[in-house]
Amino acid sequence: MCGIFGVIGSKNAFIDIYKGLKMIQHRGQDTCGIVTFSSRFNIKLAEGLITNSFDENDINRLDGHAGIGHVRYPTIGKGGIENAQPVYTNTPYGITMAHNGNVVNYFSLKRRLIEDYHRYINSEVDVQIILNVFAHHLSLEKNFTFESLCGCVEKVFDEVKGSYSVVSYIAGQGFLAFRDPVGYRPLVFGTDGERYAFSSESVSLESIGIENFEDVKPGEVIFITDKGKINRKIVRKSDHKACIFEWIYFARPDSIIDGIDVYNARYRLGEKLAEVLKDRRKEFDVVIPVPDTSRTAALALSTKLELPYREGLIKNRYIGRTFIMPGQKKRIDAVREKLHPIKIELKDKRVLLIDDSIVRGNTSKSIVKLVREAGAKEVHFAVYSSPLKFPCYFGIDIQKTDEFIANKTDFEKIATEIGADSLTYLPLEKMIEGVGVRRNDFCTSCFSGKYDIPLDQKDIDDIKKDRTNSF
């Protein structure tokens, strides 16, 4: 999971990109980057957060009418500025590119690019694969047309397995965006009549004053020329399987993804969880959300069960999201620094804690311990998702089966493992109903183990080895 933003037709692309990326900073905190185009590419990459990496001096230096930006959360490849996006190649034309997703066959394609296409990959970030596959096929085209461009993206669809929503600028030609045929990761497109912008989440477009937006469709290519002509085509049709974790955890509650607003999806998930717990409502004195993602679901549950809702944990907003931090020790240390209890809301209470999910269990264990130390009589834990049990190869950094607490111990013992008096999960069917209402076209592979594209075991082994060596 990462965040991407791009714009063309802007009076100052840098300012638009900077504003847009700030709104999706939650999607990646390791590195960030902005590339603009005037008569040349103007590039700045940095480690850390957007607000710490760019200042007023960059407004004039990164000038131009078009550009793309990125915030990164590492999946393939280690963290660090050497693997920051956007990335660039000077042939053909000069192309810069950024993506959100995960290339499953990164390592086998990297070998092929070097051996067969003679294109050397000088970083460990997987968008380099997409860029170089695309650039190779574009370099074989005699004429630059929208149809030839679509043909090159089709070659990407043929060769690159995995999830990828892509924004790109081609020097002297225009702005390119496309989404993989399955549509795992979100991509929103909008315009105000002058500017055309793309982002991982709709809230970024609204932040720069673009209220008219829609989703880029799975398998769709959109190309906007430097003169403002829009070309779009669905070049590959497939069953749409958007990642359900976007609504559970990743996205901001004020975003709309694939026509489903995140806030109401989380509210419905809270109501579904209340249905599961309705016969036990007398066992709890108070409902406490684990901030921030779980607030909406906790509010819905407390309303449905007619239980008091209270803020019992205060978040230090200067600590990033622990789930997307690289390395288990960093995640555990961050929990201790991130949350502080309001003891008056917890002391002598039978507390029902609401969270979005449990992955490795260490974060949940630390939170339960914190609440107990604040004086809670009992601590019950409930999550509005199903047990996470299977690796994700499409953009979440959980790619080894033994990382999941649900696979390490019997289900009945997980509550004991995290120190809770009880543990409740939301069944998979209710989770899908809660997010989609009448839709069920989601990727749920990390919950169900059912993958929507064929996976090669050698590619999986390469990914596991990469993640083991990254920490």
From TrEMBL:
Binding site for Mg(2+): T293, D355, D356
InterPro entries in alphabetical order: GATase_2_dom, Ntn_hydrolases_N, PRTase-like, PRTase_dom, PurF
Cofactor: Mg(2+); [4Fe-4S] cluster
Annotated active site: C2 (nucleophile)
Cofactor note: Binds 1 Mg(2+) ion per subunit.
Residues the entry annotates as binding [4Fe-4S] cluster: C243, C392, C443, C446
GO terms of molecular function: 4 iron, 4 sulfur cluster binding; amidophosphoribosyltransferase activity; magnesium ion binding
Pathway connected to this protein: Purine metabolism; IMP biosynthesis via de novo pathway; N(1)-(5-phospho-D-ribosyl)glycinamide from 5-phospho-alpha-D-ribose 1-diphosphate: step 1/2
Catalytic activity: 5-phospho-beta-D-ribosylamine + L-glutamate + diphosphate = 5-phospho-alpha-D-ribose 1-diphosphate + L-glutamine + H2O
Class of enzymatic activity (EC top level): transferase
Key word Metal-binding present: yes
EC number: 2.4.2.14
CDD domains given in the database record: PRTases_typeI
Domain Glutamine amidotransferase type-2: 2-227
Keywords tagged on the record: 4Fe-4S, Glutamine amidotransferase, Glycosyltransferase, Iron, Iron-sulfur, Magnesium, Metal-binding, Purine biosynthesis, Transferase
Gene Ontology BP term (one): 'de novo' IMP biosynthetic process
Stated family: In the C-terminal section; belongs to the purine/pyrimidine phosphoribosyltransferase family.
Annotated NCBIfam families: purF
Role of this protein: Catalyzes the formation of phosphoribosylamine from phosphoribosylpyrophosphate (PRPP) and glutamine.
Protein name per UniProt: Amidophosphoribosyltransferase
Name of the gene encoding the protein in the UniProt record: purF
